[in-house]
Design the sequence.
């Protein structure tokens, strides 16, 4: 009997391509800038949001932060200068170490999301460890922001059906991404810009990093914003994009 795998697809015509890529990714760890990862979803079980199937040229800009304090502030300055809000998925440990920057993110009108506490691969943890990490990260972020954040991005972007179920049981919505700059790998400013602007489509969730290990993101960001604006894209918060999502669930046998 074949094993059933459920994925979210925003383009019915690409379903077989997406499923084939998902199998290849799961088997060999193949990575591309346009992230099409399998997520498990039925009417009874949770799913991870990674893009909205819309025609309007709207995108959501998201950043992951888990380490360092030098790269985040210039990124926040650039966003403020361009009157753009984003979603920052921060680890609880980072919020605990850098409360002033965390408060600045909130004061600038950005959305805060949870990115775990220990930055562990959740599928490698047992259920109790996942719950403990969710509890601790939620508490540390709330201690700084006084917010009960509702969006979660698993550390390393790594999840499976069990992880999604635990995240939903905790009250979070899981947010993945559909296009990334590969900026964590520091491939060069021009390449980061090309990775985003050459691959973006309406409804995309864009992934960049504001950790100190992503040394070139701050320099690439102004060009990314300018180019996307020139392509008539507008930047919306993740909640608006989710509210406009028109996703379809397909069963692959």
Sequence:
């Amino acid at each position: 009997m074949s094993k059933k795998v459920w994925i979210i697809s925003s383009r019915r015509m690409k379903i077989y391509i997406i499923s084939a890529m998902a199998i290849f990714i799961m088997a060999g760890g193949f990575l591309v800038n346009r992230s099409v990862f399998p997520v498990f979803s039925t009417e009874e079980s949770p799913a991870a949001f990674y893009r909205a199937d819309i025609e309007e040229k709207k995108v959501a800009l998201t950043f992951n932060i888990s380490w360092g304090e030098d790269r985040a502030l210039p990124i926040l300055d650039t966003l403020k200068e361009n009157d753009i809000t984003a979603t920052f998925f921060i680890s609880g440990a980072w919020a605990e170490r850098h409360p002033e920057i965390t408060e600045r993110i909130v004061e600038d009108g950005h959305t805060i999301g949870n990115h775990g506490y220990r930055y562990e691969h959740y599928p490698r943890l047992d259920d109790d460890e996942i719950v403990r990490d969710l509890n601790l990260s939620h508490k540390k972020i709330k201690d700084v922001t006084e917010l009960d954040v509702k969006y979660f991005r698993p550390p390393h972007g790594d999840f499976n059906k069990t992880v999604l179920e635990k995240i939903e049981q905790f009250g979070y919505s899981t947010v993945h991404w559909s296009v990334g700059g590969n900026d964590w790998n520091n491939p060069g400013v021009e390449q980061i810009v090309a990775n985003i602007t050459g691959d973006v489509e309406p409804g995309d969730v864009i992934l960049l990093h504001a950790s100190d290990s992503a040394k070139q993101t701050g320099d690439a960001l102004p060009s990314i914003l300018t180019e996307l604006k020139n392509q008539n894209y507008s930047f919306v918060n993740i909640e608006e994009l989710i509210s406009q999502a028109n996703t379809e669930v397909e069963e692959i046998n």
Q: What stands out?
A: DSSP finds nine helices and eleven strands in the chain. The first helix runs from residue 15 to 28.
